[in-house]
Amino acid sequence: MKNNYLLLGISLIVHLVLISSILVYFMLLNKEPIADTTFSFNKHSMKQSDISTKNFRSSVTLKAVGDILIHGTLYNSAQTTDGYDFSPMFSEVKSHLEDADITFANQETMIGGETIGLSTYPRFNSPYNVADTLKDVGIDIVSIANNHTLDRGEQALLNATSYFDQIGLLYTGGYRTISDSQVIRTITRKGITFSFLAYTYGTNGIPIPKNKPYIVNLIDYDKMTNDIKAAKKISDVVVVSLHFGNEYQRMPSDDQKEIAAHAVNMGANIILGHHPHVLQPMEWIEAENGNKGFVVYSLGNFLSGQKSIYREIGGILTLTIQKEIKNGSQTIEVKEPTFLPTYVSKNGYKIVPLKNASNYGLPNSTKWLAEIDDHMHQLFPENQMAQAN
Ligand SMILES: [Zn+2]
């Protein structure tokens, strides 16, 4: 009898489990079409055909830092028994760089490598490990259009660009050949394509070889206009890197304002400025023709051996770029600019968030943080943190 009850009990449980499994199965079957509708967009979001024909919305984060200026004091400090290691200098900011969809830097000194001899100011040449470290901390693209591009001649540029190609780091603004200069650098993330153009005001008086004008891009309105128009044809967002302005001046010059406005007028969405070695504010630009764009006039020094407080403070700009296609028309919106000030500590040239700089030898870091925050935002009208283009 006992065994019979046991068998009956087991059979009851088996039946209950079976019935409930069947019920759950049908419930899931019914839900599946709803789940599929909700998630099919994500599954196929990278397909161009879907993007062009259906409603689409995606957003990407872009981060940018200013000058990477490798003085002799820095490469001496980075020297190891068998080479150079710059990664400790970036260890406290790596997490703030690698979490973006795209990260940009201005590589002010040419990375021509050890074989042609390293050198410091006024004619720089930096070790290859700088590029390895940039790649490792999440930098996707560097501008090499600046006043130090030709410091060590064409050879340093050829070495640097060949090394960038080898490790898969994009470069813009300086080129190996004419055909290299004709390829607009683009990066696509989450269905949004960005173009990166770069120009410098000059090359410290070192002449650009007459037969090789492509070797570095100068700020030239006709060239910029043509490039921006070409970039607009192949991308959603045009980012223009400009090496311009007056060294150590904390506010943009009239020239900077005019050049940035010109770029926006021609269709640039984002202007990343650098060269003054100190931070200059961010601003929304509305061009004469109604085009809108975002500019940061100077990103300051991100890493350098320069002394005095404003040259030791740089920062990480973050922008969110949203692309929306609705009923066949596309809008690009640049929004939510934020700026994380950073500081280069005197001990080991470690780059640290300014808010932590008191732990790295800077007294009153809270005071500096508040001042820099005001400085960077002073050209923003109140209640106008985002504009559509
Ligand atoms: Zn410069």
TrEMBL record:
Gene3D superfamilies: 3.60.21.10. Keywords: Membrane, Transmembrane, Transmembrane helix. SMART domains: PGA_cap. It comes from the Bacteria. The chain crosses the membrane at residues 6-28. Residues 61-306 form the Capsule synthesis protein CapA domain. The keyword Transmembrane helix applies. InterPro entries: Capsule_synth_CapA (IPR019079), CW_Biosynth-Accessory (IPR052169), Metallo-depent_PP-like (IPR029052). Belongs to the CapA family. This is CapA family protein. It comes from Bacillus salitolerans.
